[in-house]
Specification:
The structure holds 2 protein chains of 2 kinds. By secondary structure, chain A is mainly beta. Chain A has 11 helices and 54 strands. Chain A is globular, with a radius of gyration of 31 Å. Helices cover 39% and strands 3% of the residues of chain B. The radius of gyration of chain B is 27 Å and the shape is globular. The chains are: A mainly beta, B mainly alpha.
């Protein structure tokens, strides 16, 4: 790494030696950029004069010194504002003052993009594939976490939501690059990278600690040229989250107080189709007559018994202010959401402080961001949703004679489902997470070296997550176990510390019309997590709940400490020549403690070129064309998001319950682990070709990208030759996979009229992605690795990893269909039984239908994704909606396969209710691996619909907005299950019940 | 002037970076919550703990018990337990058992239609080699060269530990040889990271097992002298006898005389027939005087979802009350096809006391359907209650030990070896068989005459006596009845009346995943 530093120093030295030209007959332009309506200053506006570009500071001020005498056109551009041009005349040795009042619009291409390590780049200068979204573009409505803000907004980015309040969310940017490691992007909050996956939590989405109301902008870095500077953490893309900074109050100095609040109600949508009590009774009479005596006389709707209308309230209060040298923002937020399953809830209290102070005429800037959150989650006990789906409808919920808390339960039928209401009411499962993420940053304008700024940043991420569960001994599942009664508590902590030190050097070569920006730095990130855990089974009494552990038959405690370190050197150079030719080079050298000594360090370079064709003489006169830029990029990333200590051959000490008897003594065992000491980085190389365009003074803008990503040295848990390691699987670098796709994004001001009182802007995006596993076996063979565990049977998998196929392709039998396309259920070979040999295609023609006849079939990933957002405004009124469409995604309907057969009436001794698909198929036994259950889940969804009205009843700037939002408005799909978006793996197994959310709220600014 | 300041600034920056680098590039972060190969053997007790794991590989499926931190992957942990896998591969494809569950690949085990991707076959293969790799690692860590630097070269138990490790390795090699035929021979000389091993022939594996067992014999405790749960010369002789008894099948010629000699060594030991047949399959069966080598399970300390926990639960369903068998639940799985029920005189509940175990209430004799628990008689042979009727220590995880080798098996092997021309005494053979019969009938009414003692009788008696103890497939193959159309039973070849199967089914396929991981291997014919 010494070499790398030397390069940076050489570059710094080179730039320093280029002396600035001497001043001639020049003057100065001094100005201010403000919002035309609110007259608030706008910071970071790109101000272009001739070939020079500067940015206004936080107070909107900008100064251009050494301007040759003459008349200039000043052009200003900024995120969310229409570009402005103003004429100004420079007189020798005088300062011309100008004020640029800019009109806010929603459709403009983002002018300034945060790209990494304090780099803020003008959108027009960006060479990589980057999408920035600001607050006004976020999804509206009742949202818990940051990811939901950008759902359907960025082409190539898919957001999968569990539907549970605050539940886990997965993001895929341009498809997954890994099989074993995480496919989640890196989140960087105000410069502090979070652990991949968001960090630890007590069970729900770790990003819930961040209040969406505090977020100013979210930038998604998609191609390797943009993410390579994040090295081994950037392979799955990077999401940069910037929180809101201080703002001057409207019309002067002082502070501004703002409040926003909302209430939401979420009625439940339909669940999986099951038989009615009447249909169920007749099915039992026909297919399980011996069970008829077991039926009761009720008509219970078990889903209704566990569900309710969800209710949410959300309040945010912020105080912000700014003076020329100082700004701050203090916010508090509170949100409480009761989920649609009774008892499940998520509650959040947040506090955030952002603070900036500059000293010595802005030569030193201090920034601090601290946010803290407390999250309280009450979880739905596992099995409740599934149990309520299939519990047979003829029984009452309560049974006064029951020893199980007064709830009806089956006796002597071990495998019979538990009463879901009893599970819900008697089980406790709660989590509390405390988390604080913050950083303090100092930036120094190095004296004597104009354009050189040094930054030191200390960041931290401290989390404490507690989870406690309790199941009383009289709950059926406990009472029938050997050790009735269960209590557990985990108390995980994580503390990540970051030190970043980096320098920027910006320099303009006016004579050449060139600009250079250099960045070089060092980063140190350490992570320490502890996982203490205790549980007790066989409780002597139940009264203490989670608060105490009475004497118990079995107790188990464990402790695990996980530590890792990531050390990096990075550099970035950006060159712009004649505002036309742009080049960005970056390199990062990462060292990770997760790898063996020989492979600890990895180098991740990138290069990107862009050509602003619209600046060329042959296009400059084309009035309709306001921008046209061609981008090319290449880069390499790593992925190190997998378990620590893989390189150490460790001995696993057995638990007390896994001992072996020597005579009269039980001996604790130790087991040697199998480790590949040479394990190293997964490396993703990606290529991107892109085109950015704008027409009619950027009234219509867009980007078009094509990318190709190849991941090699895929870290994968693979079978090894038997006997060669003390395991049949080992984690090693094997195999490769590819992702490719197109992305299109368009933004347009579609209509403007009625004295500009009415406007309609629209965003549209479309993306394709296809992935393929190239190789997963060192010898190139056709390895078939099963994945995608399903409910039903034990150890059944429905998906496959196989070279030549998309990741997680479904792996099924081809069900023979009749003339109507219905899967057959008949004794074709007339051997007296209906089995695989009758109903499935013998793919290998060996006369037997067995597991060798399962074939890869369809993929859970959509071939096409579309997103569309329209916003309309008329005077104070606004309305918007977001549409999303996926094409070609497939879902395995596990609820149907598990319960859509008549054997479900008998196989656990008591009848379960059946999935209504059995009425069509007539399956008498489970057919888990039939392709019938792999359904096309293409969809069109109206994600949200918003109307609002903004007015100023008192004085200018004191705004009140009232709004109403409907989320999950409408879904059109051919999928027969609950939700065609059944999660990232495409297996629909009793998803958390879906709901439609209606929100009403108001926001006020004083 | 300006340039001097610039240079000074650069120098300061360079210095700062240089200082920072030397301090902040250390990447060694060692695990603190586990022991590593570097420090585990500083404690001499670790050798015993490691040896215990070699044995525990037969009993539990991972380090957590009953599930968690599995030994082998790619399969449900309970499915991948050694005894469960061994039992299923020896019993399910035969006339002794059918199972009602639809788990992927399980019905094919019953109907003789398995493929090379069958998860149960794969799990058994990897279990065998997990044992072999563990034993090899143990042997590498206990050489004089490895012990001396730790100051452990004089630990007195090490030679016996090493002999036990080699016994366990030989046991697993025998299972591998029997199930899979030609398999790789991996010993402690194999270096980790080397190219995959070559395939050895059945004959080579046979020779390896034989030479290993003969080599370690004198280092193991005398017949019957080992601690319960550990191997001694009795277990070793049983394994040798099994090897010799099937030598013709393995392509190593007639070794019946050697088989008889090996069995005689066992019979000469301190074992005796358990006075009560059924006591050998109950929660306190560790007290049985008949066991030569058993794999111990315990409801508190040796928990698994495999082993006898599986067999006991899976055999309970229908109208049976789980509590009567010391269990919390029945799993509604295993039944016995009529062909074996009818081997007992007058079928279930006849004068042969062993047939009293069959549970008939609500059960039908014919196995009309695999998935219907009432089709076929239930057979709660393994019960989690003690001989005095007390419940086992845990209603989910049983205390029943699995009898791998016991005296009655030795008696029947003696008789078979005699009948197959291995020398010995026909009269003695008849005595042994009738001792078993007398225990079953409670009196001499079931005794047979010398004229009745022929090979088919021994096979039938083995079924009656050793049903569900993991011998049947091996026996049927030795008699040439496992495949082909000579002997048909319910669901053989996937029809209720039974269909002829190909002779290639005498061997299981080497798992497809193993063929890919080790290109040196050639698949068994027919797969």
């Amino acid at each position: 790494m010494m070499l790398r530093v030397r390069h940076v120093l050489v570059a710094l030295a080179f730039s320093a030696l280029c002396a600035a030209p001497l001043a001639a007959q020049t003057g100065t332009i001094s100005g201010r950029t403000i919002d035309a309506t609110t007259r608030q200053p706008i910071g970071l506006v790109a101000v272009s004069v001739a070939d020079r570009t500067v940015r206004s500071d936080d107070q909107g001020r900008f100064v251009l010194t050494g301007m040759p005498v003459g008349t200039y056109t000043i052009r200003t551009t900024f995120l969310g504002y229409r570009p402005m041009t103003v004429q100004v005349t420079v007189v020798a040795n005088q300062t011309a003052t100008v004020e640029v009042a800019m009109d806010a619009v929603a459709f403009a291409l983002d002018a300034v993009v945060v790209t990494s390590y304090g780099n803020q780049q003008q959108r027009r200068d960006v060479t990589g594939s980057v999408k920035a979204l600001s607050e006004e573009e976020f999804n509206p409505g009742s949202l818990v976490s940051a990811e939901e803000l950008i759902q359907a907004k960025v082409p190539g980015v898919q957001v999968y939501d569990s539907g549970e309040p605050g539940g886990g969310i997965s993001i895929r940017i341009r498809g997954g690059t890994s099989i074993t490691s995480s496919n989640e992007p890196l989140f960087v909050v105000d410069g502090m990278p979070l652990a991949i996956g968001g960090g630890i939590s007590a069970g729900r989405n770790p990003l819930n600690f961040l209040n969406p109301d505090d977020i100013q902008s979210i930038t998604v870095l998609k191609d390797a040229a943009s993410t390579a500077i994040y090295g081994s953490q950037g392979a799955n893309g990077v999401v940069l989250i910037e929180t809101k900074a201080g703002q001057r109050a409207v019309g002067g100095t002082g502070s501004q107080l703002s409040y926003s609040g909302s209430v939401s109600g979420s009625p439940v949508l339909d669940g999986p189709p099951v038989l009615t009590a009447e249909q169920f009774r007749s099915a039992v009479a026909q297919y399980a007559p011996s069970s008829s005596s077991l039926l009761g006389g009720a008509n219970t709707n078990w889903r209704d018994a566990i569900l309710q209308t969800g209710f949410t309230q959300d309040h945010n209060l912020a105080l912000a202010g700014a003076t020329p040298d100082f700004d701050y923002r203090l916010s508090v937020g509170y949100r409480a959401e009761d989920g649609v399953v009774r008892g499940s809830s998520t509650e959040r209290a947040t506090v955030g402080l952002g603070f900036r102070q500059s000293f010595f005429e802005d030569r030193i800037r201090m920034t601090a961001n601290v946010r803290g959150a407390r999250l309280d989650d009450v979880f739905t006990p596992g099995g409740v949703v599934g149990g309520a789906t299939i519990f047979q409808p003829t029984e009452e919920i309560l049974d006064p004679t029951s020893p199980h808390g007064g709830y009806f339960e089956w006796y002597n039928f071990a495998l019979a489902a538990n009463n879901p209401v009893a599970e819900l009411e008697l089980t406790q499962d709660r989590g509390t997470t405390y988390r604080s993420v913050g950083d303090i940053e100092g930036e120094v304008q190095i004296p004597g070296l104009e354009g050189l700024r040094g930054t030191v940043r200390f960041g931290y991420d401290a989390t404490k997550a507690e989870r406690e569960t309790f199941r009383p001994s009289f709950l059926r599942g406990e009472a029938e176990s050997g050790t009735p009664g269960f209590v557990s508590r985990s108390n995980s902590t994580q503390s990540n510390l970051l030190l970043d030190a980096f320098a920027h050097y910006d320099r303009t070569f006016e004579s050449a019309g060139a600009e250079m920006n250099l960045t070089g730095g060092y980063s140190y990130l350490s992570s320490n997590s502890t996982f203490p855990y205790l549980e007790a089974q066989g409780l002597s009494f139940d009264l203490l709940g989670t608060a105490g552990i009475p004497s118990a038959q079995q107790q188990r405690t464990s402790m695990w400490v996980d530590e890792s370190r990531l050390i990096s050197f990075f550099g970035r150079a950006h060159f712009s020549v004649a505002d036309r030719y742009l080049l960005t080079l970056s390199v990062r050298r990462d060292g990770s403690s997760k790898f063996g000594p020989a492979n600890q360090w990895g180098t991740f370079p990138s290069a990107a070129l862009a050509w602003r064709l619209s600046q060329e003489s042959f296009l400059r006169d084309l009035d309709a064309l306001s921008d046209l830029k061609l981008r090319l990029s290449w880069g390499k990333n790593g992925n190190q998001a997998f378990a620590n200590y893989q390189q150490f051959p460790s001995y696993d000490i057995g638990e007390a319950t896994a001992q072996y008897q020597f005579g009269n003594e039980f001996v604790t065992t130790i087991r040697p682990g199998a480790a590949d000491r040479g394990i190293k980085w997964e490396a993703t190389t990606s290529y991107n070709v892109g085109l950015d365009f704008g027409f009619m003074n950027d009234r219509l803008t867009g980007t078009l990208d094509y990318y190709f990503k190849k991941t090699e040295d895929l870290i994968f848990r693979v079978p090894v030759a038997a006997g060669t390691f003390t395991s049949n699987f080992i984690t090693t670098n094997i195999g490769s996979l590819e992702n490719r796709g197109f992305e299109l994004s368009l933004s347009a001001l579609l209509y403007e009229g009625f004295d500009e009182g009415f406007s309609w802007t629209a965003d549209f995006n479309a993306a394709t992605n296809s992935n393929e596993i190239v190789q997963i076996n060192p010898f190139g063979g056709g390895e078939v690795i099963l994945t995608g565990g399903i409910a039903g049977g034990v150890g059944n998998f429905i998906q496959v990893l196989q070279a030549g196929q998309p990741i997680n392709s479904f792996f099924v039998y081809e069900h023979i269909r009749d003339a109507n396309g219905k899967p057959i259920w008949e004794d074709v070979n007339t051997d007296g039984t209906i089995d695989e040999n009758d109903i499935y295609v013998d793919q290998n023609d060996d006369g037997i239908v067995n597991q060798d006849d399962r074939v890869p079939f369809k993929s859970p990933d959509p071939k096409w994704t579309f997103g569309h957002t329209s916003r309309m405004a008329y005077r104070g009124f606004d309305a918007s909606f977001t549409l999303r469409a996926y094409l070609g995604n497939h879902v395995y309907n596990n609820v149907a396969s598990n319960f859509g057969h008549y054997r479900a009436l008998t196989y656990v001794g008591v009848p379960n209710n059946l999935h209504a698909s059995v009425l069509d198929t007539g399956f008498e036994r489970e057919q888990y691996f039939s392709d019938y259950y792999v359904e096309d889940a293409s969809l069109l969804r109206l994600d949200n619909l918003t109307v609002g009205y903004t007015f100023s009843p008192f004085r200018t700037g004191q705004e009140i907005r009232v709004f109403g939002v409907v989320q999950n408005v409408l879904t059109l799909t051919g999928y027969s299950g609950v939700d065609p978006l059944a999660g990232v793996n495409g297996i629909d197994n009793n998803l958390y019940p879906r709901s439609r959310t209606f929100t009403a709220g108001a926001s006020v600014r004083f | 002037m300006r340039s001097i300041r610039r240079k000074a600034a650069l120098a300061v920056a360079a210095l700062a970076i240089g200082v920072g680098m030397s301090a902040c590039t250390d990447l060694l972060v060692e695990p603190t919550s586990t022991v590593t190969s570097g420090n585990v053997f500083t404690d001499a007790a670790s050798y015993r703990s490691f040896l215990a794991k070699l044995y525990a590989g037969l009993a539990v499926s991972g380090q957590q018990g009953p599930a968690g931190r599995a030994d082998i992957e790619g399969i449900d942990e309970g499915f991948g337990q050694y005894i469960r896998g061994y039992w299923q591969l020896q019993e399910l494809p035969t006339d002794e058992a059918v199972i009602g569950w639809g788990d992927a690949g399980l019905p094919e085990m019953v109907t003789n239609q398995w493929s090379s991707t069958n998860q149960f076959i794969g799990a058994m293969y990897y279990r065998i080699y997990f044992q072999i790799a563990l034993a090899n690692e143990f042997l590498r860590e206990t050489t004089v060269e490895a012990l001396t630097p730790r100051g452990h070269q004089n630990i007195a138990e090490i030679p016996q530990y090493r002999a036990e490790a080699r016994f366990l390795r030989a046991l697993s090699y025998w299972h591998g040889l029997d199930f899979f035929g030609n398999i790789p021979l991996v010993t402690e000389d194999f270096e980790a990271g080397s190219p995959p091993p070559a395939q050895a022939t059945r004959g080579e594996i046979f020779d390896f097992i034989e030479s290993e067992l003969l080599d370690i014999r004198s280092t193991l405790p005398a017949v019957g002298a080992a601690q319960y749960g550990r191997a001694d010369q009795g277990a070793l002789s049983m394994l040798l006898a099994k090897l010799y008894m099937n030598a013709v099948v393995y392509g190593n010629g007639d070794r019946y005389a050697d088989a008889r000699t090996a069995v005689e060594a066992v019979i000469a030991g301190p074992y005796s027939l358990d006075p009560t047949y059924h006591n050998m399959f109950l929660a306190d069966n560790d007290q049985s005087p008949e066991f030569v080598f058993a794999v111990p399970f315990d409801g508190q300390f040796t928990q698994t979802w495999g082993g006898t926990t599986f067999i006991a639960h899976a055999s309970v369903g229908g109208a049976m009350v789980p509590g009567d068998y010391g269990l919390d639940f029945g799993w509604w799985g295993l039944r016995v096809p009529p062909e074996v029920v009818n081997l007992y005189e007058s079928g279930a509940g006849g004068p042969d006391g062993r047939s009293a175990i069959f549970y008939t209430n609500g059960q039908n004799l014919a196995v009309t359907s695999l998935g219907d628990f009432s089709a076929g008689l239930a057979f709660p042979k393994y019960q989690n209650v003690t001989s005095t009727g007390a419940m086992g220590s845990h209603p989910t995880h049983t205390d029943i030990d699995f009898p791998m080798f016991r005296l009655a098996d030795a008696y029947l092997m003696y008789a078979e070896a005699v009948l197959r021309g291995g020398g010995g005494s026909s009269a003695q053979a008849l005595t042994y068989v009738n001792q078993i019969r007398q225990r079953a009938y409670g009196d001499p009414s079931g005794d047979i005459t010398a004229g009745q003692l022929d090979l088919p009788f021994v096979l039938a008696e083995r079924a009656r006596e050793l049903i569900w103890e993991g011998h049947r497939r091996n026996d049927l193959i030795r008699y040439g009845l496992f495949t082909g159309g000579t002997y048909l039973w319910s669901w053989k070849g996937n029809t209720q009346t039974g269909t002829s199967t190909a002779d290639t089914r005498n061997l299981y396929p080497i798992p497809a995943s193993e063929l890919l991981a080790n290109p040196n291997l050639t698949q068994n014919p027919g797969y």
